[in-house]
Amino acid sequence: MNRRSFSKYLGAVALMPTVLKPSEAITSIQNVQEGISKQAALVPDVIAGRKLSEDEKLWMAEFFKNFDKSMMDIRATNLPHDLMPAFVPKYPPKKSKRKIDSSED
Amino acid sequence: MDRDLLFKTIPELAKLIKGKKVSPVEVTQNYLKAIEKDSPKLNAFVTVTAELALKEAKLAETELTNGNYRGPLHGIPYAAKDLFSVKGYLTTWGSRVYKEQQFDYDAEVIKRLRNAGAILIGKTAMSELAGGPPFATATGACRTPWDISRWSGGSSCGSGAAVAAGLCAFSLGTETWGSIMTPSSYCGITGLRPTFGRIPRTGAMPLSWTMDKIGVMARTAEDCAVAFKVLSGANDKDLFSIDAPFKFSKRNIMEKISGLRIGFIREDYEKFGEVEVGKAFNEALQVFKTFGIEAEELVLPDYPYEPVATTIIAAEEASIFEPIVRDGRVKDLIDPERRGEVLGGQTITAVDYLKCIRIITQMRAGFDKIFERYDVILGSSTLTTAPPIDAKMSDVFKGGNVIEAAENLTGIPAISIPCGFDKRKLPIGLKIIGRHFGEKTILELAAAFQMATDWHKRKPPLFR
Questions:
Q1: Which residue of A5, A53, A62 is in closest CB contact with B398?
Q2: For position B210, what pLDDT does the model report?
Q3: What element of type H or E holds B81?
Q4: Helix, coil or strand: residue B377
Q5: pLDDT over 90 at B439, yes or no
Q6: pLDDT above 70 for B68
Q7: With contacts defined as CB-CB under 8 Å, which chain A residues touch B244?
Q8: B91 SS3 class
Q9: DSSP E strands, B357-413
Q10: How many C-alpha atoms does B337 have within 13 Å on its Cβ side?
Q11: Is B85 considered catalytic here?
């Protein structure tokens, strides 16, 4: 729900560089976007070992239309090489003096 | 039917039950009558577990007669979103794809509530596979009791409507991205979304292992605290679940909240929502001012919150629902956009997915910094009130409320409480967001707000 409307909103933002004479940094993002859009045009024939119907390809293409713009933002993000994935919150919080109530304690 | 009894809070009902002024069987039968009469107007329930409820109520009554009081949930009827497995009943996940699905075990939360003496009265409607617009529900669009031509929100739509209409004392919902906050706001109830991992998800439908949280939807912050106390704590099967202490009491509450440092998010209500929602939010800030707390505007750290949330959910649900892609049942999902999402998610690369999970590490560090300065953050639960059933979602969720994606990615807790009504007499929700494991603080602040206001006591005129 939110993510769909967001993707549409993001779509409008993504088009802005083409209207507003983009800087070099933005041009490089555009290149990423173009690359992804080409990928979007190539909806696969087979997924999970099954040949897709024409309807399924249409639904997928519709998904890519919005999703590719999200991908552009993510791929344009540079991360330090030592940044690890986050899976669970740390406990206890930094300033807490309370004792951990767990079997490991 | 005793309408007054239907709208009692958990402590009020517990007092009556413990004092033998009313029996668990009477309370249960009262709710069952209300469900029979009112649920069809709302499409709130998918399955009414009347037989099980009466059996559990009779057991509770016997135990109470024998002086075996299990605590404040003993004899209290509740409802659970239809994504929690309950032995002997269908668990449809809101989808016609899974309309015949049954599990031979109870979800961990169902077990914990049963051990506390609570009575499962039914399973509530939900958006298909916990996401999508109003029409994407196998049992028909779920309506808010405040105006049955409008949506109760998603995806815990039935859990929100059932509490608001007085069809149960409290309910269980889940949130991956807005699914407790939205229906709590649209239905004018109190909804707690705890820290990621505090309530184990064993036996609940997964949508996103990284973002799914189970929460409580009820009338007051105190109700949420009572149920949360029973539900929280790790178990072996949910590898992400965590143990942490929790205590809540309304005693000396003004003293406890004094000195809290509050930040707030200024939304563009004119552009993304409704001006009246913004007005109610500003008035809520004034209530905190009467507590001696001055809120300070804050700016969120700049991260691609929504693209990251979109990608993680799409990738994880693609893995979870891969079997229906393989056998072609994906075609039977109600919402064509969702079919595309489950299909398209199959192509997300591991590199992109892991990058998103790594970005969360940065987001958490950003929020750690915010919580060095503030104890809680205030925002609007939704930027609009309940939309018409046939409203286009792109017209309802036009942008703004970016913090909602941030909260759900970082796994910090939040509570939604009613903070006013618009001109159409639809409820407006205020969101209090805390740091990891900060449930006590947000519940205390919410309880203080509810001591100073009466928005949460209002009942929908059609269901009084």
A1: A5
A2: 96
A3: strand B77-81
A4: strand
A5: yes
A6: yes
A7: 91-92, 100-102
A8: coil
A9: 376-380
A10: 18
A11: no
